[in-house]
């Protein structure tokens, strides 16, 4: 068949296909993440040492407020996954010296940017959790959990968090070039990119945020941080980079 007569692949269809493929690839890390979360929650309610440790963590979060959320999320979401990826890339370079660096900027710049980005995300998530409690109350009943999960995953993520994360990592991958942020190829593809990201993560994070919102308010950000760190490390260890 002549190439000119072939139907072009639609960006949205392609994004859905890639998202579903990525979701299948994320299944194992997702299951491991849920198991970890269940162990943490079980330990909180039934194992005194775990209860004591998480209570201390919750008290620290309550005392430090947004400061705790910024610092902890910068460490768990930014620093630890960054260092793991850096070590992994250096190990791979020893096996294949021709492999490019994960970033087009010095590692310290990439690390510093990720620290700042995830510190801000920590404040943002903390604010989201607080506002959800004001709007829908606290507790683990379906009446409380369902609207919180829906707002988190189907309003906050598609309308703000997903797009901002795509822009941030695009900017990092393009060496903080101002021109990259107005690149037409970015804005033409941001919709399909967002669809891919959402489909590939909903299967894991809808159950995960359901668990997070069922916890006491002062433990929600700490549990989110633990889940975020495990998620980043497992993806780096068990799946291909997309």
Helix segment tally: 9
Distance between the termini: 31 Å
Largest sheet composition: none
Q: Oligomeric status of the shown chains?
A: single chain
What's the mean pLDDT score? 86
Structural class: mainly alpha
> How much is the radius of gyration in Å?
20 Å
Per DSSP, what share of the residues sits in E-state strands of 2 or more residues?
under 5%
The total tally of domains equals: 1
Contiguous low-pLDDT stretches (5 residues minimum) are: 1-6
Measured as a percent range, the helix fraction is: over 70%
Strands, count: 0
Shape: globular
Order of helices and strands: HHHHHHHHH
Summarize the structure.
This protein is mainly alpha-helical and 242 residues long. Helix content is 83%, strand content 0%.
Structure characterization notes:
This protein has 242 residues and is an all-alpha fold. The protein has one domain. The protein has nine helices and no strands. Helix 2 (27-46) packs antiparallel against helix 9 and helix 3 packs across helix 4. The longest helix has 32 residues, at 142-173. 26% of the residues are buried.
Tags for this model:
9 helices; 0% strand; 242 residues; mainly alpha; globular; disordered N terminus
SSE inventory with pairings:
Blueprint: H1 11-25, H2 27-46, H3 48-64, H4 66-95, H5 107-136, H6 142-173, H7 178-181, H8 184-214, H9 217-238
Helix pairs in contact: 1-8, 2-3, 2-8, 2-9, 3-4, 3-9, 4-5, 4-9, 5-6, 6-8, 8-9
């Amino acid at each position: 068949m002549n190439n000119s007569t072939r139907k072009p692949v639609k960006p949205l269809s392609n994004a859905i296909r890639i998202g579903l493929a990525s979701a299948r690839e994320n299944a194992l890390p997702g299951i491991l993440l849920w198991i970890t979360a269940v162990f943490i929650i079980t330990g909180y309610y039934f194992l005194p040492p775990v209860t004591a440790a998480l209570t201390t963590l919750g008290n620290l979060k309550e005392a430090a407020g947004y400061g705790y959320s910024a610092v902890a999320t910068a460490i768990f979401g930014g620093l630890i996954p960054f260092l793991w990826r850096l070590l992994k890339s250096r190990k791979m370079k020893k096996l294949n010296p021709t492999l490019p660096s994960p970033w087009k900027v010095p590692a310290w710049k990439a690390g510093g940017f990720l620290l700042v980005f995830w510190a801000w995300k920590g404040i943002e998530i903390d604010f989201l959790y607080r506002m959800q409690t004001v709007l829908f109350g606290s507790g683990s009943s379906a009446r409380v959990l369902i609207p919180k999960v829906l707002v988190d995953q189907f309003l906050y993520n598609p309308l703000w968090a997903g797009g901002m994360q795509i822009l941030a990592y695009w900017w990092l991958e393009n060496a903080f070039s101002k021109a990259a942020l107005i690149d037409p190829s970015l804005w033409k593809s941001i919709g399909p990119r967002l669809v891919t990201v959402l489909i590939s993560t909903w299967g894991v994070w809808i159950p995960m945020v359901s668990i997070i919102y069922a916890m006491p308010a002062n433990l929600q950000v700490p549990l989110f941080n633990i889940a975020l760190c495990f998620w980043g490390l497992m993806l780096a260890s068990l799946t291909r980079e997309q």
